[in-house]
Amino acid sequence: MASLKIPANVPLPEEDSEQLRKAFKGWGTNEGMIISILAHRNAAQRSLIRAVYAANYNKNLLNELDKELSGDFERAVMLWTLEPVERDAYLAKESTKMFTKNNWVLVEIACTRPALEFFKAKQAYQARYKTSLEEDVAYHTSGDIRKLLVPLVSTFRYDGNADEVNMKLASSEAKTLHKKITEKAYTDEDLIRILTTRSKAQIMATLNHFKDKFGSSINKYLKEDSEDEYVQLLKTTIKCLTYPEKYYEKVLRRAINKVGTDEWALTRVVTTRAEVDMERIKEEYLRRNSVPLDRAIANDTSGDYKDMLLALVGHDHS
């Protein structure tokens, strides 16, 4: 359920490229033109625009945007214009660097993307950075966190659906999870194996068994130890695998409600989910906060950056 609004008659990429070229020329950049084009084209259309722009003007569109724009607006436009797998590769790389390290983003990418898309993001990572995501994650983590994150980013899950769930297995693995969690054996290899290798449909069935059998959700059982970073990552893994819209709603709420907006988190969620499940995230945000997401964004941001984000969540005026 994407929020992206694409015009009924999309101009040819040659026309879009020409308009973007004009937006960069003359006195001052025409930011409104950039938003009206790029924020209303899907990934395939944006990819074509980049290819045509390079062919017609012998220039890299991303470099042009980088040169002409600045601040949070530039970051939003640049992230959005990247191919989704290139974007994930970039976000993952940022998350393994010393000064921008973010284990939560690694969990987010590994657990919310379809298996093939995540695999392609890892290929893009290798092509761009000449190293594998797995080795970078292993190098930049240690102890229990490494024990969870390395298999999480190494897996190629089966994208099974609910019809293919093994209920007997779900029941027995629910018991295994309950036993390990009540023993506080959070780093047990069976617990990690189940969460890092089973299909999302199988995990959902296992966690439903868990709740039916033991009276509470698995994350409620983990709550008492949730000050621990490893346990927080475990809870995030479960949330991203089962209810990504709830996970993203919380990221947005924290980004918007904290003193001084966390623009990086806000930009990341809007640009990565606008073509995926933003409508569900918006519903969840409204249910949880009694304020529509577009109004929360409008109240917390300004200028071209605000206009770009509102366009991506489907609430601009075009």
From TrEMBL:
Keywords: Acetylation, Annexin, Calcium, Calcium/phospholipid-binding, Metal-binding, Repeat. It comes from the Eukaryota. Gene3D superfamilies: Annexin. PROSITE patterns: ANNEXIN_1, ANNEXIN_2. Pfam families: Annexin. PANTHER family: ANNEXIN (PTHR10502), ANNEXIN D6 (PTHR10502:SF202). Belongs to the annexin (TC 1.A.31.1) family. Belongs to the annexin family. A pair of annexin repeats may form one binding site for calcium and phospholipid. This is Annexin. The lineage of its organism: Eukaryota, Viridiplantae, Streptophyta, Embryophyta, Tracheophyta.
